[in-house]
Amino acid sequence: MLGTCIENVRKNVPLVHNITNYVTVNDVANVLLACGGSPIMADDEEDAREITAICGGLNINIGTLNQRTIPGMFAAGKRANELKHPILLDPVGAGASSLRTDTAVKLMKELDLTVIRGNISEIKTLAFGSGTTQGVDADVADAVTEETLDSAVAFVKNFAKRSASIIAITGAIDLVSDGEVCYVIRNGRSEMGKITGTGCQLSGMMTAFLIANPEQKLEATAAAVCTMGLAGEIAWSRMQDGDGNSTYRNRIIDAIYNMDKETLDKGANYEVR
Amino acid sequence: MLGTCIENVRKNVPLVHNITNYVTVNDVANVLLACGGSPIMADDEEDAREITAICGGLNINIGTLNQRTIPGMFAAGKRANELKHPILLDPVGAGASSLRTDTAVKLMKELDLTVIRGNISEIKTLAFGSGTTQGVDADVADAVTEETLDSAVAFVKNFAKRSASIIAITGAIDLVSDGEVCYVIRNGRSEMGKITGTGCQLSGMMTAFLIANPEQKLEATAAAVCTMGLAGEIAWSRMQDGDGNSTYRNRIIDAIYNMDKETLDKGANYEVR
Amino acid sequence: MLGTCIENVRKNVPLVHNITNYVTVNDVANVLLACGGSPIMADDEEDAREITAICGGLNINIGTLNQRTIPGMFAAGKRANELKHPILLDPVGAGASSLRTDTAVKLMKELDLTVIRGNISEIKTLAFGSGTTQGVDADVADAVTEETLDSAVAFVKNFAKRSASIIAITGAIDLVSDGEVCYVIRNGRSEMGKITGTGCQLSGMMTAFLIANPEQKLEATAAAVCTMGLAGEIAWSRMQDGDGNSTYRNRIIDAIYNMDKETLDKGANYEVR
After folding, report:
1. If we measure between CA atoms, which residue out of A18, B48, A67 comes closest to residue C69?
2. Which residues on A lie below 8 Å from B247 (Cβ)?
3. Residue A203 exposed, middle or buried by CB count within 10 Å (0-12, 13-18, 19+)
4. Which residue of A has its CA nearest to B28?
5. Is C268 in contact with C226 (CB distance < 8 Å)?
6. Using one digit for the tens of pLDDT, what is the confidence trace for A234-257?
7. C70/C49 Cα distance (integer angstroms)
8. What is the ipTM of this complex?
9. Which residues of C touch B238 (CB under 8 A)?
10. Hey, CA dihedral for A108, A113, A118, A124, is it positive or negative?
């Protein structure tokens, strides 16, 4: 069933407006092309407001936010809301600095966000107003494991309900909830954490999935998570002696490029709680 | 004959000043190194004016333009004109927003541009003052095909004459004209559109070709287009099962790195009208 | 002995704050992950000051400096000094423009820099107040060769003493000195110069080595240089027909990912003078 979601991306070629960090932006663009979408980047306030209008949805990533790009995020977000475009927020490093935490919280308050996707530490920061984020990676103490799964599922459902957004927490086990049900996803490999920006890439791709599947946004979000994780598994199986994280990055994007409905339906590893 | 142009790049190692977008900038730098040039990026107004003076030419790409970098484009452009350096304009997304269209038009008016290189929608926007650009990719309705080729050749010749610049339109069929003659180029593969920034990469490389071939700018422009397209063909022939757009990107840059006079002369597929 | 240094990086997973250029930033992040560190990028003045406090060290690279990011460099630098974090300066293009030279000189004056790493032309610019830097690559006339080695070693020792920083000059022969002794390193390959940003990557990795080896900063600096050069040798041995600089870039990062104590101890090629 999730396989239909990527099929819809390839059919619809959704144009995604990204206001994202300059660290991983090239990979975000190539992942969007790989999954069947089309990327455009614009962060100047004036340009962002106009560009978002020709797109189908907006991906806001605060990874290298600054005083120049923050107004662009709000301007584009408000325009996207007026146009009923889906908006995804990737609160990179929320909890690691006041500027990041405050900007993410303010974006949540002033915009209707369709999805918030982050690691557990970032999402906890948004839920509780403060966090223990260590840099841009999740704090080990926060990790979702089989032992902490029940309480994590309860947390994500609760936060999704309260925030009126779909919440996607990615890590060793991924959780996606709209407040009613929760997808518990076990695709992916831990080595993906050794590549910069797999989270950013997922956020870009997820926005394309949301645009192309307007009637089933929860499934689209889960499908994007499964696609990324499964691509990580397929890519790993192609690794050879001497290969490392740079080749792994390329092979993951390649695997998304080659992902089809059947592969995704067969490889998606999830349960719904 | 076009092969001499890349040979001259390798001999002269032209230093290219790039004011370009942060999405594809790393690939632009690596392509410039691959073809034998040397890249430098500087977009701060003060820095750009000075850096352009130590370079041989200037590549202006408006892909992620903003209020801070636009003054840098004009400052560097004026300095480059004073020094008689070739300037290339890549009007990424012209037609997609007022800021992009207006900036590109103003750059055309205030600077002597040696080459303007874009997709057909972007170039039509500059020629007619408005366009139907969909994001950063060409509109299908605008595409240059065998059926529309005659009128497209007439259009590009006319616009080149009127703008006093060499015009390079890239797509399924590429057109390069100085207003008198038009190179019609049939190198490349459609899968190149699934990689972000092949156009930006070409613009960077083309600027190096212009610097290294001052007496034959039209041939240099056409040679750069053929080099990129032929690299796309060679790279595709090296693709293996499971490879996708990320590996394709790497192999294209690799193919440029290995391109020599003989390969280019043999593989360049063009006619002059 | 140098092998212990990378082992310490893998054990300590140092968090590195990078204020770096947007050309090579993605590779810097992936190299930091490859060697066992963890990268975070923040250049907004307010954000940079706070982010640096949660990190173990700071990497300042002036490759695409501008009026917005320069204050972030000073703010983060002062905070890092207060916290006794190691700071590395990579003066990209010092000598090529006044803004670059002046900013690098001012950073040297106002901050306690643990290491300054650059090519010979950039370092000469900082030592003598002016230089002959051609773009971002070293001037051939400046090159450290077997013939000029004695005077180069004397120069780097003298400048290290005078600046109270470890000086690392990278090129065909690499020199690392704290003013007392000088590591003369002969790892690496000339083809690394055909990849954009191997210097930037080394600076990022070196900062991780400095954080993880607080009691042996000179050895850590030399170990990072040997790691990069040796990775360049290993990566080259894996190159196949048709491969070029893009694949070489990936393989170098891969080789760092796979580098361990034994490989580094066996492959490091240096003498201490």
Report:
1. A67
2. 250-251, 254
3. buried
4. A26
5. yes
6. 999 999 999 999 999 999 999 999
7. 12
8. 0.96
9. 242
10. positive
